[in-house]
Amino acid sequence: MFGADRALNLVRLLDFPRPCGSEGEARAQEILSDEIRRLGLDPIHLEFSGWWIEPEHPILEFADGRIEVEPAVPLPFQAACPWMGGVGIEVEITGVLTEEDPGGTSSGIPLIALHDRFQPEAAVAPWSAPQLLLYPPAPELIPYAMLADPFVPSAYVPPEHARALRQAARPRATLSWRAKRGTRLFRNVVAKILGSALPHEVVVLGAHLDSFPGTVGASDNAAGCAVILEALRWFRSNPPERTVRFVWFTGEELDRRGSKEFVRRTAQSETICLFINSDGGFESETGPAWIRVPTEPMKAWVETWLQGAITIEVRSSDGDEESFQERQIPTFRVVGRSRQSAHLPTDLPEGIDPDKLAFMRRLIVEAAWQTSRAVARNRGGQ
Length: 382
Ligand SMILES: [Zn+2]
Prior knowledge:
This protein is of the alpha/beta class.
């Protein structure tokens, strides 16, 4: 029997921000690797190099001195969000420091706003002026408004400088940084159960382990990761005929880099029959889940084994499925209708619905099982 409790425990274990490339993500990868070892398997760490951007010389200069600051939005995410148009990757802004919300002013003078405390009820930094945040980095801060237009940069200033800034004799200041572009290592965590009959044909079950900056991402996507781990547990005692790979991707929120790299490597040596994605939609009080497949034949296939009423939608979709669809690999996803927009700090473990976890895990295992044993079924039918 499937215990949603076990999956919920993992969601609670992953209750910290895990943006791609962060220490949090590395910690989450270790937690998952330990879980895989506990099932008697060796986790595979699939490492690869990818682009990265570090801020160079991030500085606030004003009459009384120079202060080192920290851009509030990790620069790689600004580069990866096309709607920002690259604004804020490199910054040089001179303006007047103000403690007022400058949103309503129309004086035409450039302003740089000072915030001295994090307000969880308004967890979005930008007003319409560049922001200096005079408090320690708050992991639940969404460092930019999703709809901020135009986007304005924000930076953390060490709180010990707050007083000096407020008392600056001439409150004119310059905020600046440059971008240092380079590469660094990333990794997907993978587990594998070898197929007994057709080991080079593969069913892939995946979930992204990284979270969007500013949230612990319980539904998007700690819960999806927990579902894939439970699927692995199930296959440990139900060995498949085709190989089944379980992948916890890095960087879905950062240009899908983990899944792109996984497909690129795996497709060279193995035939991927199906990619099953578990990503989001596990919250309580949402509408019913539905299945999303990219083609009519896929829909017909799902109908051959699916029992019970659930909507099947034929639509290509976003997220890690795209990396597989780009190579004409069929995909399957169970999605719960979300009540909240994704990527908010309110995406917390308390919001996860155990029944949804159980339901989505059942459909995912069923799809994987049907695909993994298709050989036997086809032979039997001939
Ligand atoms: Zn997601």
